[in-house]
Amino acid sequence: MNLDDIAGIAHEPAGKPRGTVVLTHGAGGSRDSPLLQKICDEWAARGWLAVRYNLPYRRRRPKGPPSNSAATDQAGIVEAVELARSLTKGPVVAGGHSYGGRMTSMVVADDAAKVDALSLFSYPLHPPGKPERARTEHLPRISVPTVFTHGTADPFGSIDELRTAAALISGTTEIVEINGARHDLGSKTLNVPALAVDAALRLLDAAS
C-alpha cells in the first residue's frame, strides 16, 4: 500500500520523522482543505511526517457529502492508519475535521486500528440545533489520548457539551478552545494548528 491508495499527500519533515500523522476531512471537504494543509505543515515543522488524505466517498466523487458510506469510509481510515504504521517507526496520530474525525474516533473505539493519539477538529457532537441527537455513544470505548480542538461558536456542539463528551473517554483528553471560532475553526488571533499540535505532543509525552 502507498499514498496513492489512500489519495494521500505527504508533508515531510526536514530530518528523520519522529512519527506519522494521518488526517482527513469533513463531510463537504477534501484533503485540500486549508485547515488540513496548515495542520500538516505544522506537524512537519515539528519533525513529523504528516499525511492528509481523502476518504473513500471523496475518492469516488469530487463534490458532495457522504451518503451511506460510513462503513467504507471507516475501512479507508483503517487502511490509512496501517499505511502510517509502515512509514515511520515512531508513534501514529490519527484524526481529522468534523465527519473525518468522528469516523476516525469510531474506528479507534472499535479497535479496528491502533493509534497512539487522536486529534479531532470540530468534533460534530450533534447536528446543529438538535442536541438530542448526540454522536457520543462510542466515546467510552476510546482509551488513547485524545485532543479536541473546538470553536466556542461551533453550532455542532458547545464547549460545555464537549467537556461532557470528553469525560466519557477513558484515556487522557485535552480540549483546545478556539475563542469565537465556528465549525471551520477560522481565527484571526489564534494559531490553531500550533495550539492543536502542542496539545497532542503534550499528551503523547505524558503517555510515553
UniProtKB/TrEMBL annotation:
Chain segments carrying region Disordered: 1-27
Stored Pfam families: Abhydrolase_11 (PF20408)
Alphabetical list of SUPFAM superfamilies matching this protein: alpha/beta-Hydrolases
Ranges of residues in domain KANL3/Tex30 alpha/beta hydrolase-like: 19-187
Protein name: KANL3/Tex30 alpha/beta hydrolase-like domain-containing protein
